[in-house]
Structure formats: structure tokens, C-alpha cells
Amino acid sequence: MRNIAGIDLGTTYSALAILNSLGKPQIMPNTDGERLTPSAIFFDEEDAEVIRVGIEAINSRHINPDRAVRWIKRHMGEDFIKTIDGRDWTPTELSALILMKLKQDAENVTGKVHDVVISVPAHFDEVRRKATMEAGSLIGLNVVGIVNEPVAAALYYATSHEVNGKVLVYDLGGGTFDVTIMDVKGHQMDIVCSHGDHKLGGVDFDQAVLKLLEQAYREHYNEELLTTDEDRAKYEDEAEDIKRTLSRRPAAKKMLYGPAGSLKVEITREMFEEAIAPWLARTDILVEVALEEAKLKPEDIDEVLLVGGSTRVPAVRARLEKLFGHEPKTAVNVDECVALGAAIHAGLTVLRENPDEVDAGLVGGLGDVQLTDVCNHSYGTICAPIDRESGRRVIQNRIILKKNTSLPCEETQTFYTMREGQTELAVTVTQGEDSDPEYVNKIATYKFELPPGRAAQQPVKVTYSYDVNQRMHCRFEDVESGKVLEVDFSVDSQGNLKDGAPAEQMEELKVN
């Protein structure tokens, strides 16, 4: 049987799950015997060929933070470069190193990993989604699709426990936050809407604790606790440990060793909750926006499912219980359910696209699972219609695929050339809800060349499609000439892999 896997490529921790012969997902432990692998990288100083990923990278970063990478998911799809020994690494390539570690460790146990689905935050834009898929492709994985993290978690909840009705998935991880609302009837899941923030999570809580430690030391000694990057790296880990302790106990004590001397400090849960209050208020707002978009009130929600390690913070659970009137559910491991659900999604994808290659036991295990996902953003293009009042052309974002449209979907709109003899169009693909181009994300712009010598107002058909595996395709057709521009987004076109190693070199890399 071919190995089908789901991967949770997390901000702070990552995990890989394999589907067994009965269609049940299982987390693959790493070489340290741990079920979660820290999403951290360290480039060895003495041997440039050695790249450490996981707990060794966490421990090594205290020695030389300049050679370490953490929280790279927050930079996915951005113009971010980490330069090590004269080599520029993009977020996609760095993410590929984490995926390589997961792949190699799993293959030591189960054999070659081939078909995978990688999870992403529901609010990730198209560039970040494609960058994530490219990271898997760089190391030789067959990325059959991606799945939104709360959807993956709900898949695992619904297939392992009884979940029914209007369900809100509250996904607060190490670096990102998502809230997704869905209708669940047994193994039938229909997504209603999602909202989120890709820079809101446990990392921000850690930084809030770190500020409390810095403040305590400054008030006592009138000196700064952190004077080097090594100090910061060390106390970032101490802050994370304090955060975890405060989820179990009302207070945490820590000894600080700074340039002016040592200091014993105590951080109480009350101090911590006050420090992270702005972040929690942001999650409250996003929950309210999702409810409003779904046309629901808090009392309409039958179950709240918790996902992500940061939902262990007592204040998070207390706020949700107060808002919805009932305790949120944690019937599964909140750290592992995304990877487990992603494996189920991978099985469903392979079953749908290549049913002859799927083991009979897997068919029996997944045959009754039904999922309907939606577009998490609106997609459009820039046009210049004539304003009826002024008679002038106005630059406008015209939405083609609307947010929350059920997948798969396809929509076509017709636009027209502006002037006589026009020989090219600058076609822009946008992502966002506003008609003003200034307030949407311009994913990409392409030049579409047209035949010369034509009158104005020639029709151009624009077709956008989005499939169930979160893959988008755009087609621009000049009706008169039949000329077509096809666009399948690649990270290369966005510059995220510029000056990077080609796929065959990445596949040969070994990580420890």
C-alpha cells in the first residue's frame, strides 16, 4: 500500500500522520521518539553540510542565534531572506527543511512517503498557499492538495467522535489564529465561513511574558536583562516555559541572570492574562465577525471545538464558555488533530482522484466521509469601467469568485478592451473583498498580448476556477482571436524562490 500522509506545518511545532490500511490516521514519531517536532532550524558552524531541525535546533540556537531560524511560517510568501554562509534561504526553502525532517523520520518507520496534504491557516492568501505546496514539492513529495487547519481538525473530530450541528472551530496555535464555522451531520461537513490572523498566537503570548521578565529586572536593577541575541534566545524559551506552567498553576517562578546580578521573579496567571488581553480581544473580534458573516448568534452554535496548543490557556477557555454558554470541547489532542485530519483529507483526495490505487481497507474507512469546503477569500481582477455620473473611467476591483463559494467552483465574466488598436492587457489577479484596488491583495500581474489593428470594445472572457484541493486556475481569452492566457500560480512568479536551489538539490539534502 502506498503511504498517504497529512502534515501540520506549524509555526512552533510540526507533525506528520500516516493513514493505516483501515483509513485511520496515526502520528509518526520523530527520531527522538517525540510526536511533535519543533519547527526550528540550526545551520552547524563547524560543518556547513549539517542542518539540524527540531529539538537540537532549539538547543543550539542559544549558542549562535544568527545561525538559527524559528517561526518561519510567519514569513511564508513574504520577501524574506535568511543568509547563511553566503547562501540565501527563502521561507519556502526553510519550510522545506522542516518537511524534510518529518519525511525522513517517518520513512525510517513506515517506508517511502509519497502522497501528502499539507495544512495551512484558513486565512492564508494564495501566495502563502502556493509557497507551502512548493515547499513540499522541493523535497520530492507529491502534494495532492492543501487543507485549512480548522477543517483538518474538524475532520478528525467528526470521524473519531460524535459531532453534530452548528460547529465553531477555534484554532489558536503557536503563531496563527483561525475561526471556522461549519454544519456537521455525522461524517458530512459543510464549511460556512472562516476568518483569522496569520500573526496571532502562542509566540505573541511568549513575547508578552518576556516583556514582564524584562520589566521586573529593569525595575529592580535599573538595568536591561537582555543585552545580546543569545540572551534573548535563552529567555524566549524561558518565557514559553512560564506560559505553559501558568496553564497548569496560578503562578510561575523563575531565576533571572542578568548583567547586574540574579533576580528571582514570580509571574502570576493574573499578570499573564492582563499582558495577553489585547491578543485575546483580537480573537474575540474575529469570532464575532465570523458569526456575523454566518448570520448566527452565539446561542446558535451547538459545539465549540478547540484546536492548537495555545487553547490550553485557561483565559481562552473561560472567554469561550462565557460567550457561548457551554464549555468548549477538547475530546482530541489539540496539538495533533490537524496532522491527523490532514491525513484523512489526503486519503479522501487520493480516493477521489485515483480510486484504483487505494487499498480496499482505506476505502471502507473513508467511504462515508463527505466534506464541502469554501473559498476563504474573494478573487477578482482590476478593470476600468465608465462611471455613470462623471462619465470618466474609474479603476476598480471586480470580484469574480466570491468568498464562501462552495468548492469546486468556476465563474466567468466578460470585460472589454478600452481603445482602438490596443495590443496588450495588464491582467491582475486580486484577492480581497473591496472594490477599491488599494484595499485588496494583488496576487500577480501578467501581460496578455493582443492582435494589432482592432477596434475598441473587443470582448475578453475571464474565467477563475478553484478546486477542492485549494488549487486556483485563471484563464483569459480574447474572444475574437481565440488567443488564451492560462495562469496556474507558481511561487517562482512571486519571487519567493529567487536564487534558491532547484528541487533536485533540495531532495538530496539530509537534515538531523
Description of the structure:
It is globular and about 80 Å long. A hairpin with a 5-residue loop joins strand 25 and strand 26. Helix content is 31%, strand content 31%. Helix 2 packs across helix 3 and helix 5 (202-221) crosses helix 6 (229-246). With 512 residues, it is an alpha+beta fold.
Q: What's the overall geometry?
A: globular
Using the CA coordinates, give the radius of gyration. 24 Å
Runs with pLDDT <50, length 5+?
A: 492-505
Helix content: 25-40%
The largest β sheet comes out as: 6 strands, mixed
Q: What's the β-strand tally? A: 26
Gap between N and C termini: 28 Å
Mean pLDDT: 90
The amount of beta strand, in percent, is 25-35%
* Helix run count: 13
Which structural category do the helix and sheet elements fall into?
alpha+beta
Quick overview of this protein structure:
The chain is built from 13 helices and 26 strands.
Please describe the structure with a list of short key phrases separated by commas or semicolons.
single chain; 512 residues; 31% strand
